[in-house]
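Researcher: Structure prediction, please.
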Amino acid sequence: MGPTSVLSRFLRYVKVDTRSNDGGTSSPSTPGQMLLLQQLAAELRAIGAYPVTLDDRGAVTATISSTSSTFGVPAIGFIAHVDTSPELSGENVKPIVHRAWDGGNLVLPDAADAVLTREDPVLAAHVGHDLVTASGTTLLGSDDKAGVAEIMAAAEYLITHPEIKHGPVRIAFTSDEEIGRGATHFDTKRFDAVCAYTVDGGEAGDLETESFSANKLTVTFHGFNMHPGYAKGRMINAVRLAAAFVDMLPKDSLSPETTEDYEGYLHPYTVDASIERTAVRLLVRDFTTSGLEEKKALVEQVAREVVSRHPGARFEVQVEEQYRNMGEILDQHPKVVEYASEAIRRAGLEVRMRPIRGGTDGSRLSFMGLPTPNLFAGQHNIHSRLEWTSVQDMEKAVQVIVALCQVWAERS
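Model: Predicted structure follows.
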């Protein structure tokens, strides 16, 4: 199992622009995602997976038949998403392989300010690895095309090595995970597995069994517009209301910039502004549902204080539930986590149990009846021009997927 297969796949996949669109109404939200999904379906058929389906909602599913002679080995699944973050361009990605990195500064060629240095302790631990970056003006797309490539490489390895004993293996590639829609149309009953594993994590050895619980809030301020030359005492500028609201949110806590580990946050990320009406959208994250409610109450308190200073102004808050902490479900299925830990150890890695400061398709799938923890994929600096991954870590992920199939067969 050399790195060539997973690397060559990865380099192909990142060149397809699959940036999702939060404002899109189609599924998938962008045509590039369907293009890559069609490519993946064709590749799965070519390596011998059967059956392979691509639905019109943007999901590929496939099966690798059991090779185990033991009756009753359950089907398990592996899932990755093809879309990349809408926050940064995924067009004309130019992947660069830095062979046997010597620890010196990596200045990405298309942007002088895009520099990777060994001051980052995670990067420094990868001296000697073959690193993959983009060229400095786009993201790389390892979130989650690393996972896609790893699942594809593992699938091909299992099919070409029938002497490896495993039960039925289900594969799924989804769309629009980055905008919270990856599991919306996922048919867990048709997928027909006892559990699944998203391959959508970071450092080699990471196993994530807890995720944020997540809501999206839209706080809309309503003002009053009129000609600015005659507005004294009459205009209520909703843009100013929204600006005051954002400024009054906590600055030294409860933001992505100031939190870590199990701390949640409020994150204003877009503003749709006009004098008459301005909407501020916020991501709300916590590891408990009660924490989400506390943060919503704080948002309402701040908004109420803002409009109280401007008679005639008003606000409203809309809540969109996104996903919940998958740990609530995975705690009820200890084997799913135990077997993943064993597979990571068989690949020669130390198991690191970490909470996801974000969500994966598994966050929602777990609550839809498919327990789904998250395995590492080798992603680093995701959603950034400084995104990178290690070829050796991607190959370790392939080994873990193969070993996990074996563990389930051995212990069933």
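Model: DSSP finds eleven helices and 17 strands in the chain.
Researcher: Thanks, that helps.
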